[in-house]
Amino acid sequence: MDTRRRRGSRGPALQENVTTAIATAAFDELAGNGWTRLSMDAVARRAGVGKAAVYRRWPSKEAMLLDLVQDLVIRHLPDVPDTGELRGDVRAFLELTVRQAADPRVLPIGIDLLAESQRNPALAASLREAVAVPRRRAAEEILRRAVDRGELQAGLDHSLATDLLISPLFFRLAITSEPVDGPFLDRMTSALVAAVAAAGQ
């Protein structure tokens, strides 16, 4: 059994295997029952731990969710490899997104939280920081490198270009649920590179 421990920001050392069990239970509960029915009690029951173990780590379900989602995004969206060209960087970015969405819980959770954020401004603001900011930062780094290499114009509309790199694949994965395979990613890469270049004209 994993007996490693980490020291939480609120004091006592916390067992990593217990934290992992709680995180898994939280995502399973959220994917299966949605945000409105998610509770700390239900997470504790699913994880097979006492409520105190959950509350030692997070004071509320909001804090728990945002911490876990941010950790998931950061772990699955590392620095996009610098392939030396815009096309290669865009393809790598798309592959990272597809890999993150491979977990069957990710898209149901994402859609549920997007819906809830329309009714909950505080949640919406927190999700922007936990999810949107890291992903947009990665996309903006791709664009910055392309401008530095002379592949894109210095006057590029970075906000529009960032939207182009992120939104079409998300729509395909979350809304249409159509297949995303290698040949499709190749075609999308070509389309996005052309669209991003046009954003600088």
| Domain module tally | 2
Structural class category = mainly alpha
Tally of separate helices = 9
Strand content: under 5%
Main attributes?
Arc Repressor Mutant, subunit A, 2 domains, two-stranded antiparallel ribbon, single chain, disordered N terminus, mainly alpha, Tetracycline Repressor, domain 2, 201 residues
What does this structure look like?
This protein is mostly helical and 201 residues long. It has two domains: 5-59, Homeodomain-like (Arc Repressor Mutant, subunit A), CATH 1.10.10.60; 69-198, Orthogonal Bundle (Tetracycline Repressor, domain 2). The chain has helices spanning 16-33, 40-47, 51-57, 61-76, 86-101, 106-117, 121-149, 158-176, 182-198, and strands at 5-7, 13-15. A two-stranded antiparallel ribbon has the order 1-2. Helix 1 (16-33) crosses helix 2 (40-47). The termini are far apart. Mean pLDDT is 86; it is low at 1-12.
